[in-house]
Specification:
This is Alpha actinin. The protein has about 210 residues and is an all-alpha fold. It has a domain of about 130 residues: Actin-binding Protein, T-fimbrin, domain 1. It is built from 10 helices and no strands. Helix 3 packs antiparallel against helix 10. The longest helix has 17 residues.
Length: about 210
């Protein structure tokens, strides 16, 4: 029933506000009634609070700090010039450079070409999903031909969080000896999944519709 849906959404909004998120002109009724603008606004507010706002680089805002972090990490790489969160990522080299800077064994950057953006983007997305536990949120064709700032910013924030925590290689159990090794592995060295990434994973598709 509509009444119960509104009550459920109100509980969610109350929780969000308890985390310090200011919700302006966003009500449960609009969300339940399918107000797309209100829903997208709420989603983006959640992303900013839980995936981007806590990024701290110098005295800059979270957005500018994330951009500066990307610029510093990719500065040594040919054909990469990160100036924004849209066109600077179209050819995929910036994503690949970020990965190579932190995990050079995952990508051979010297073999990449600026003229093959779809390959570069798919390579970065596949490697990030398989080795960095970063969900494949973006579509290569969308980024190459119609990059969306909010979507790319959210996705890039996942790299920031992934690379700013201790990395522990994944262990695959293939024998009793391996099982013993896993059981004896120091638990404190195993990084926990950053809950802020889950926010981006759930809502990134919605943000691509807001222009």
């Amino acid at each position: 029933m509509r009444f119960h849906k509104i009550a459920n959404v109100n509980k969610a909004l109350e929780f969000i506000e308890s985390k310090g998120v200011k919700l302006v002109s966003i009500g449960a009724e609009e969300i339940v009634d399918g107000n797309v603008k209100m829903t997208l606004g709420l989603i983006w507010t959640i992303i900013l609070r839980f995936a981007i706002q806590e990024i701290n680089v110098g005295e800059l805002s979270a957005r500018d700090g994330l951009l500066l972090w990307c610029q510093r990490k990719t500065a040594p790489y040919d054909n990469v010039n990160v100036q924004n969160f849209n066109t600077s990522w179209k050819d995929g080299l910036a994503f690949c450079a970020l990965i190579h800077r932190h995990r050079p064994e995952l990508i051979d950057y010297s073999k990449l070409s600026k003229s093959d953006p779809i390959y570069n983007l798919n390579l970065a997305f596949d490697v990030a999903e398989k080795h960095l536990d970063i969900p494949k949120m973006l579509d290569a064709e969308d980024v190459a031909y119609n990059p969306d700032e909010k979507s790319i910013m959210t996705y890039v924030s996942c790299f920031y969080h992934a690379f700013n925590k201790p990395w522990t290689p994944k262990l695959t159990v293939t024998s009793p000896q391996d099982s013993s090794l896993v059981n004896n592995f120091p638990r404190e060295k195993i990084p926990q999944r950053d809950p802020r990434k889950d926010v981006g994973e759930r809502v990134i598709d919605y943000c691509q519709f807001e222009k």
